[in-house]
Every structure is written in C-alpha cells, then in structure tokens.
Design goal:
The protein is mainly alpha-helical and 497 residues long. The protein has helices at 32-35, 39-50, 52-65, 84-90, 104-124, 134-159, 172-175, 182-199, 213-226, 230-242, 285-288, 296-303, 321-326, 333-337, 378-391, 395-408, 418-429, 436-442, 446-459, 488-491; strands spanning 72-75, 100-101, 162-163, 179-180, 268-272, 315-319, 338-342, 352-356, 373-377, 486-487. It is globular, with a radius of gyration of 23 Å. Residues 1-29 have low confidence and may be disordered.
Length: 497
C-alpha cells in the first residue's frame, strides 16, 4: 500500500448525464466516472481523506480543544496589538448572532471536517462496485469509514446539530441540507465506526500510520463514553487491552514522536503523520505554541535548527498556572510536558514563560518539523477503561488500569474519590493533547470550571501573562457556552441555519 504521505491527486468531478451512453470522457482528465476503478485509485482517494487531519491538528484543534479550556492561554503582547480571533476563543468571548459566528478558526475547523466527509462519501459510494482484492478493499473502506466517523464526532461535539452528508454533493441544492439532530449524527458515527472495527486489520498487520481496528474500537468507545454507555465502552476497551497490540512506553516522554523517529510506537493507537521537508507534509505547531516575542537565539535552544528565525506577535497555547499546579508532587510527567524559557524582549514580569515541552523535539528547518500528533494513545485506553468500570460500580476492577498510568508517572494510589481521581489523571496524562475541553463538557463541569477560571484571570491578570497595567478585555468570559456557533459563511450559503 502506498505511503500515507502520497500526495492526493486533485480530482475534478465532472457532472454528466448517466442516460447519455455516448458521453466520452477525455483520456487525459480525471472524473468520478473514470477515477474510482482500481485499488491504486482508492489508495490515493483514502490518502486524500487523511490530508485535512494535518491542518486540523496543526492549526485548529489546539485552539478549539485546549486553549478553549483552563489548560492553556495566550501570552499577551501589548506592543503587538491583538490577535482577536485566537483571543476570543481563549477568552470565551466569541461573538455570535442568531447561532452563527465569523470566527475564522471555527469556520476552518468546520470546513476541514467536511472536506474529510466529502472525500469519504466519494469512496463509500463507489468502492463496493470496484473490482480489486477483497482484503485490500475492506482495509481501505474501513479507513474511510473511521475518518468520516471521526470528522462527524468532531463536528457534533463542537457544534451539536450539523448537516448529515452521506452522499457526494453534485449540485448546489444538495449542498444545503438541513441540520440533523445530534442524536442522528451520533447514530451515524456509531454505524460507520462499528463497521470500521470489522473491516480494519490490527496494528501488527497494518501499514504504520494508518488506522487500525484498535483505533476504531477506541474511537467507538470514546463515543459510547460521551453517551454514558459504559458497558459497551468497557467491552470494546477490553478488546483493545487484551489484543496485545499496545503497551505503555516505559518513559512518558518517549510516548511522543520525535522529528523523524519513534513514530507510531507501541503506545500509539492513532497519530496524525507529519514529515519535515519541502513536500508539504510538515507541521509547525511547535512554533505556534512559543511565547513571543522570541529571538532566534532563544528559539534555537528549543528547536535546534540551523536557521532559527525570531517570532513576534503573541504566544498561543501557553500552559496556565492551573495546569502546572494540577501535577502532584513527584509526577514525572510534569518535567516531560512543561519547560520554561526566558524571553529577553518580553514585558511580562521577569520574562520566564512556560511552554509545552512534550512536542519540543529538535529538527533541522525553522518552522518546518515532522513530529506526529497523537489522537489516541494507549494510556487513554487505560483511563477510559478505568472510567467505564468505575461508572458501573466496579471500582476494584478500575483501579489497576488507573494505576498502570500513575505508576509510570512515579505515583502511588490516588487519594479521595475515584471518579475525581480519574478525571484529574486525564488532565495531566493527556495535557496539551486537545482533550480537556471535551472532558469538561461531557462530565458537566465546563460552566463552573471555566467561570471560576475566568474570575481568576480577571482578578490576577499578571498571573496569566498580562503585562503590568494590562487587563483582560471587557468581553472576556462573557460567552461561556458548551457549543460553538455555526460558521456565518456557511449560513450565507444555506437557508437551513
């Protein structure tokens, strides 16, 4: 199977009448009628369905899932001005009107998820009729169904009701579907991912970096956990644990990809693939996470590049005092996850900022790196399983799974209520992996936690990277809601929202 890095051929879908038997397609052009025929065609099409994941995790998910929580904040630079779109997300101050918003990051997340869905719909409507190896067909179809399920899982958790597209869009009228209730979206996600679990091979028999049956079962278990279907989640998660395909890396820091090595390791259930270089497959999220303004000499101590360049503007995704305080004494994950750097040009206190260390791997090219992004790790499987068991009153069974995670971190048995202990463990184990906001929402903690967090920022802005004399904007924490408003640009094209 061709590598997942293979660039997707841009296909121009030509609309033609199926009743016209004399229609002739130029031999040099590609269309849906001529392309979706061979195994190689579907390999390329599935590769193309993976592609938007890079933009999602590199540019969007950390904004909407991590900086839109109490784990990270932006580092204000009053000399630069403002980056209002990011600040609105971090400050829970996204302007909306009649359920829609013009926020660029919200809009792009929506568009990217529907790019995945549109590409998968072309695959699922044609692959069954194609004539090639049955096992290869099952594998490719399973990957496609997972991707569509994952995209809809993002959409329903971000927006609630969204249009449910399951067929290729061939005209403007088909593009403007009404909003489907969240329960219908969840039903489709479950249908897609259940089928994917049956079609996909295990990790040991799958090409590295591609979706596996273990990844599909983990996603499906995640969906069930959101729905509080604990017993069904337990069954799936035990299958993943008992498969023998996964284990914790002995050292927490080694669970994360290096620039060009340690990718898709034994702890990785699914991660988005990046590759340093000029092929357009690289990431730059590490640079987006840096406090600013940072000089080239300061930045190179983290990146190790041969051509470091200074960065101005404002920093994003900076660890908050809240997440730093959340680590227990002796937790080995703290030093593996967070470090600090002194910024000489900063006007904030002494200029010593924390930054996310777990992705800070040395690489060659400034602004261009190849670290993969984790979507699911085996440690989360263990924590999901502990939660599912505990919620069914099986705390004795749950504790050993929790302790596998804590023991690697150098910690003993948790103190206090096990439900709270599992929730706290998820925060530090999965810090900066875009899980926090979703955890707050699904456990009913989002409004009280973020309200209190906002009050702390407004009361002590200098503790949250505001320079002396600066303070949060008047609209900060004025729109704490569980869902994002839908994109206004999409509403302009549809009469349905």
């Amino acid at each position: 199977m061709k590598k997942i890095f293979l660039s997707f051929i841009i296909i121009g879908f030509t609309l033609t009448s199926c009743d016209d038997e004399l229609t002739i397609y130029p031999e040099t052009s590609l269309s849906s009628e001529t392309f979706y025929k061979t195994e190689a065609d579907f390999q390329q099409a599935v590769n193309g369905a993976y592609v938007p994941l890079r933009s999602i995790v590199n540019d969007r998910a950390w904004l909407l899932g991590e900086m839109h929580s109490d784990n990270t904040y932006y580092a204000r630079n009053v000399l630069f001005g403002s980056t209002e779109q990011q600040e609105d997300i971090a400050d829970f101050a996204i302007p909306s009107d009649n359920g829609v918003t013009t926020n660029t990051h919200v809009t792009n997340q929506y568009i990217l998820d529907y790019q995945i869905i549109a590409r998968v719909n072309q695959i699922t409507t044609t692959i069954d009729d194609a004539d090639f190896d049955a096992n290869a067909k099952k594998n490719l179809k399973g990957q496609a169904l997972f991707l569509r399920g994952y995209a809809y899982f993002e959409l329903v958790r971000y927006f609630g009701s969204v249009p449910l597209h399951l067929e290729p869009v061939t005209n403007r009228q088909e593009a403007a579907l009404p909003l489907s209730p969240a329960e219908d979206i969840y039903a489709q996600i479950i249908k897609d991912v259940q089928e994917a679990t049956q079609l996909l091979p295990p990790k040991s028999k799958q090409e590295a970096g591609r979706i596996t049956s273990g990844a599909a079962k983990t996603l499906l278990a995640n969906v069930y956990i959101v729905q509080k279907r604990w017993a069904e989640a337990e069954t799936l998660l035990k299958e993943v644990v008992n498969s023998g395909e996964y284990a914790l890396m002995p050292n927490y820091a080694d669970a994360f990809s290096n620039n060009d090595s340690n990718k898709n390791n034994i702890e990785s259930v699914f991660e988005v693939q990046f590759k340093e270089g000029a092929e357009g497959l690289n990431g730059n999220f590490l640079y987006q996470f840096m406090p600013r303004p940072i000089t080239a000499e300061e930045l190179v101590t983290i990146t190790g590049t041969s051509n470091p360049q200074p960065r101005s503007g404002e920093g994003n995704n900076i660890p908050t005092p809240d997440i730093i305080a959340a680590y227990e004494e002796g937790d080995l994950r703290k030093n593996a996850s967070i470090d600090s750097i002194q910024i000489s040009q900063s006007g904030w206190k002494d200029g010593i900022y924390p930054y996310i260390k777990k992705y800070a791997k040395t690489h060659s090219l400034d602004g261009n790196h190849g670290m993969n992004w984790p979507i699911y790790r085996y440690s989360e499987v263990l924590l999901f399983l502990a939660e599912a068991l505990n919620e069914q009153g099986k705390s004795g069974e749950a504790l050993p799974y929790l302790m596998q995670v804590r023991s690697r971190a150098g910690l003993g048995n948790p103190i206090g209520d096990l439900t709270d202990a599992i929730f706290r463990e998820r925060r530090v184990e999965l810090a900066f992996e875009n899980k926090r906001w979703f955890d707050l929402v699904r456990t009913g903690r989002a409004i009280p936690v973020i309200t209190a967090y906002g009050e702390r920022i407004k009361a002590n802005p200098q503790d949250y990277y505001y320079q002396e004399g600066a303070e949060p904007r008047g609209n900060a924490f004025s729109n704490i809601s569980l869902l994002y408003a839908l994109p206004a640009s999409e509403a302009d094209l549809s009469p349905n929202f």
